[in-house]
Amino acid sequence: MLRAGVLGGVVLALASLPLAVPAGIGAMKGAAILQNMPTELKDHQVGQTTYVYASDGKSLITMFYDEHRKFVPLASLNPNIVNAVIAAEDARFYSHMGVDFQSIARAFVANRQQGEVSQGASTLTMQYVRMALRDSATTAQEAVAATEQTPQRKLTEIRLAIKLEGQWTKDQIMEGYLNMAYFGHRAYGIYAASQIFFSKEPKDLTLVEAATLAGLVKAPSSFDPANQTGPALDRRNYVIRRMAELHFITADQANKAAAEPIKLKLSSPPRDCGSVPAANRDWGFFCDFFKNWWMQQPAFGPNPVARLDKLRTGGYKVVTSLDPKLQEFGMKDLLSRSKTDMRLAYGNVVVQPGTGRVLSMTVNRVYSMDQSKNGPNSDPIKRSFNVKGSYPNTVAPLLGGGDIPGYQAGSTFKMFTMVAALDSGMKMSKSFYAPHRYTSIYVVEPGGPAACGNRWCPSNASGSMTGKHNMYSGFGKSVNTYFVQLEQAVGSDKAVRMAERMGLVWHTDVDRLHASPKHADKWGAFTLGVADTTPLEMANAYATVAAEGMYCKPSPVLSIKTPQGQEFTTTVDGKQVEAAAPQCHRAFSQDVARAATDAARCVTGYKAARGSCGDWSTGSRVYAMMERPIAGKTGTTDDTRAAWFVGFTPELAAASFIADPDYVKNVAGDGNYNMPLDAVTNSLKFALKDKPVRDFNPPSSDILN
User: Fold this and answer.
1) Which residues form a coiled coil (predicted)?
2) Reduced to 3 states, what is the DSSP secondary structure of residue 371?
């Protein structure tokens, strides 16, 4: 507690500071003011920048921050910066008790002589208190009170500064100050200032550089060396002279330093996903997925807004699952084949089974909000309103993990029906005669698609599919009329629920209605892939099969470390687990997964281990290209508006598509049928290069017949 006698003198001296104390105020009035002021600094963690890296832990994807700041301990700083700040702001820092009454008296005299406020009297401790009050404010009123130019605010600083000096060492106060002070150019703290102005670590600052930065704190805009060299140079040289007067440096050192010009090496710190490296603009789509993932995790806060705030202030080091080499290969591979019709989005997502970690997200687009030079929109209505198309620049999450509905995925959905049937107890030998056209039990609106009377009547892509099929040949040849009968046998609601168990969500009102408990058992067309989905969802769904029935939520992270270097943990079912740990559970049995995999081998030309695939398949070129075990499923929608391939090995799964995201009624065309097959095969082959060859485990005899 500050003594009343001292307080009276302080209040009198404060009359010369930013706002005058009303006439007649004395020790008793000052004491009354003091009683209504804060007595403690709130326990407040200063916001720090979060750094997000690729899987190598070195390639910076971007940073997230409100105020760009990274904490550095005092012991790691070059002594020049500490000495320069003392010389610039508070020469008696290590001798006063938080308040420098000599400075207050000197300021009082100077300001009375000038007739205005020409000198302040804030010590570094008082400045720290002011910043702490400002940054811990939870209301607008608190923020104003922390910075307003009044005697009351100054008294608050004095009271808390004296108390702080009794609780912290001088070095702790200096460390806190240097990590909190604002240096201009969005640089909060000495680390950010060193990076932004000189592109180096604080420990590497020279005497001249340290003096330049120390001179900024008083008035960052007025002394900004990037904008006003003259004032910045004068301020820097003032700091250098004061360092010599305080015997931090010699007169000779001061003269040499003052003769040097200001040499900046400015850098602009990246911020959010729009600032991924210019040479890797494609990383923006993965970054966007990461950001959306973070905002969905309860470990980081009670709601998306709180979680985003934590990302921007938590000071984490996040190592993501993005494989920069696979990403680079995937982009080059896609772009080598997508030069004909740029309206068509052509993308690929690679996922790791058993963890759900996403290794690459590639699409023939540039992640950028600048769409001024984009081509015309392919949607006739949007084009009539001069709405630009999504090529080549877009930030739309075309690959998933965001808020777009996606695309119909055609026959790739047959996997959900087959797994549901196996899960219900059916055998791989389950057979049906599959005519070219089949009248199903499902009712459709009169005149609706593929309708005969009031029944849904799907047909096959080729007359050569007509005949008796089981799950092996039905899946390998993608026989629609076989799978509609299989869906009828197990129930379309079971297929829908299985898709949900494997990670699909419903993106449109129409799909949500059809998938609802009231309607799912009537959704006959589901098995032919009429619902909208994304490559991320499909790659991860098939990764569940590759992981022998273990579903893992898609994840973009390998590790999340706190500023103290510890793994960030959260509580799950009463246990502490790493927030970056895979979130997995069993979706169906190991044997069901192995049986589904065996049928999916038929598609790629690899042939099944326990069944007969027939004499041809829809993706027979894949195994010949891959030259190692691979399974998967092709898919096309009506009129080939979209073409898909989802493939997997025991180690990796990938999904590729080609479609027009602006106008889904546009056709991708039969000529582009093989493009998704090539993208998946090439990416998996590259990722597994030089890795030991692993084969799939065959299913048991119990599930075959």
Assistant:
1) none
2) coil
Report CA-CA distances (Å) from 298 to 60, 302, 306, 500. 25, 6, 10, 21
pLDDT for the residue numbered 110: 56
Distance from the first to the final alpha carbon of the chain: 87
Categorize the per-residue pLDDT at 448 as very low, low, confident or very high, splitting at 50, 70 and 90.
low
CA angle 551/289/563 to nearest 5° reads 95
Single out the residue of 9, 239, 247 nearest to residue 121, CA to CA. 9
Name the 3-class secondary structure at 117: coil
For residue 392, is the peptide bond before it cis, meaning its omega torsion is within 30 degrees of 0? yes
User: What is the spatial distance between Cα 248 and Cα 493, in angstroms, rounded to a whole number?
Assistant: 79
Reported in sequence order, the residue ranges of 38-120 that DSSP labels E, i.e. its strands, are: 50-53, 60-64
Contact status, residue 67 vs residue 180, Cβ threshold 8 Å: no
Element (DSSP H or E) covering residue 636 = strand 631-636
CB 212 within 8 A of CB 194: no
* Longest Cα–Cα distance in the chain: 106
Q: Which two tokens stand for residue 458?
A: 């799907």
CA-based angle 639:641:642, to the nearest 5? 125
Tokens of 684: 């998996």
Cα separation, 368 vs 371, in Å, equals: 7
How many Cα atoms within 13 Å fall on the side-chain side of residue 124?
Answer: 31
Residue 104 and residue 593: Cα distance in Å, rounded?
A: 78
Q: What is the distance between the alpha carbons of residues 189 and 199, in angstroms, rounded to a whole number?
A: 14
CB burial class (10 A; 0-12, 13-18, 19+) of residue 392?
A: middle
157 in Cβ contact with 122 (< 8 Å): yes
- Give Cβ neighbours of residue 692 (< 8 Å, ≥ 6 apart): none
Q: Which two tokens stand for residue 380?
A: 């006739």
DSSP string, 588-629: S-HHHHHHHHHHHHHHHTS--SSS---S--TTTHHHHHH-S-
Q: What is the pTM of this model?
A: 0.89
Phi, psi of 313 (to 5 degrees): -125, -10
Question: How far, in whole angstroms, is CA 668 from its chain's centroid?
Answer: 31
What is the share, in percent, of the chain residues with pLDDT greater than 70? 90
- Per residue in 639-651, pLDDT tens? 889 999 999 999 9
- Torsion on CA atoms 686, 692, 696, 697, rounded to nearest 10: -160
Contact 474, 483 (CB under 8 A): yes
Instruction: Say if CB 593 and CB 631 are below 8 A apart.
Output: no
Q: Note the pLDDT of residue 156.
A: 85
| CA dihedral over 216, 219, 221, 223, signed as positive or negative | negative
Taking the mean position of all CA atoms in its chain, how far away is CA 327? Answer: 16
pLDDT at 136: 80
pLDDT tens per residue across span 475-511: 999 999 999 999 999 999 999 999 999 999 999 999 9
DSSP state of 339: -
Structure tokens that stand for 97 in this block? 């008790």
Tokens of 79: 């002594």
